[in-house]
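Hi there, hope your week has been kind to you so far. Please have a think about how the structure follows from the sequence. I've dropped the whole record in just underneath, so have a look:

_____
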Amino acid sequence: LDLDADTRTEYTIVHPIEVDPIEGKISLSSPVGRALQNRTVGEEVTVTVPAGEKRLFIEKITSLQGTVFTA
């Protein structure tokens, strides 16, 4: 959840060669990808992007095995 814009976006963090912004696939080395790594559901994350700072709230995480964690 983007706390500043009050919008929900689902990201899939992928290897840089698999990036596809239209499908929400972002690089694990991108600013948002780095900020979301090793985080848990319920955390608020501030990330610096080219347009400024974004405040994100993690509502759900789905593992590679399909396990879903929600707040």
User: Anything to note?
Assistant: The CA atoms of residues 35 and 46 lie 8 Å apart.
